[in-house]
Amino acid sequence: MKEVVSYDGVHCANCSAPMQGEYCHHCGQSIHTVLKPVHHMAEDALETVLHVDGRLFHTLPPLFTKPGFLTLEYFAGRRQRYIAPFRLMFILCLLAFFLTHIAIDVLTEHRLTESVTPSVHVSEHTFDDLQTPAEVKHLLDEKVAELDSAREPSLHLADAKLDDAEKILRAQAAARIAVLQGAPAAGSSAATPAKPATADAEDQETDDTGKRHRGRTHGSTKIHFTPVAWLPEFANARLAHATANLKANLAGISQGGAAKDEAIERIKAGLFGVLPQTMFLMMPLFALLLKLVYLFKRRLYMEHLIVALHSHAFLFLTLLLAVVVALLKAWIEPHAAWAAYPLRWIEWGLALWAPVYLLWMQKRIYRQGWAMTIFKYLLVGWCYTWLLGSALGIAVMLGITH
């Protein structure tokens, strides 16, 4: 039998109220002291962690497999076994964006390693067998076309290697044409005097083949900030700082090379830094859309907010699983190509399950016919897509000015 503990004559150390149990009924403070041996503190911490893990195991499976189940449980008052909606959404949001940020770099490197090496063999004797300048120019055009076909704008590291290969080919072609025309080879002491090292000559170089080499204009980005008279001083200072960052990032991207890589990293860091806040702002807007669409259901705004939190928690969990599958596929594919096919089917399954889940969830919670549910689902989805697109556009702008 459970031992009955008497608390007669025991008073709360915080408010002096008579104790009727382990916790004060007046202020809520525990009767137990916090001055405990270390092993007792470790036991309490372990109990807390196991308790949270237990709620995690009770929360995530139904969140992903049972549309609307957690929301209905929350409305019914059965909340102790599950993680609170806002905490659940908050944790999954941070994990999803954190892993996505890492996955972008990992998958980009994976694509770089798998990118096809151009079939142009740059050797010292590429143009040695040609007898006329026209043949040299024709072969150079073919080689440059092969390099251009291997270019991919998103893979700037591969483009840098292709640029180096093109420079070598153009230098060899210029040297061979000089020999065929009876002039001193490019780079010899008797060569034509070099042009002055001006900014224009550095940005745009024209070789002896008569074709202008692909160069990058390093001109300064002409973006200037004019203070707004009606804004306070701190707001103008903030805008001036953002404008300076925008100029620096755009200039870095236009320069290419290491400066471009640094600018892209700054932009990505800024973007992923504001994405969680952006999504938090979208929660009340999504709940407001549900409130307007289901106005005659006479539900409280807080109920729609719980629906919004659980919906976004599911989306973040789906994004998290999709990123994990993509990383797993990138890791396994080089060693076992056959394993990429079931993983690709899993990715497609996740993409199809998300809209079906949200429709099914809306049907179970608001209990309307399928025709009306589908109509309201499409209406809310259309409005939310525009709101989300605008919010993401603002987030991108904030990322560029980081």
Automatic annotation (TrEMBL):
Residues 187-219 are annotated as: Disordered. Residues 187-199 have a biased composition (Low complexity). It comes from the Bacteria. The chain crosses the membrane at residues 86-104, 274-294, 306-332, 338-360, 381-400. InterPro entries: DUF3667. Keywords: Membrane, Transmembrane, Transmembrane helix. This is DUF3667 domain-containing protein. It comes from Dyella koreensis.
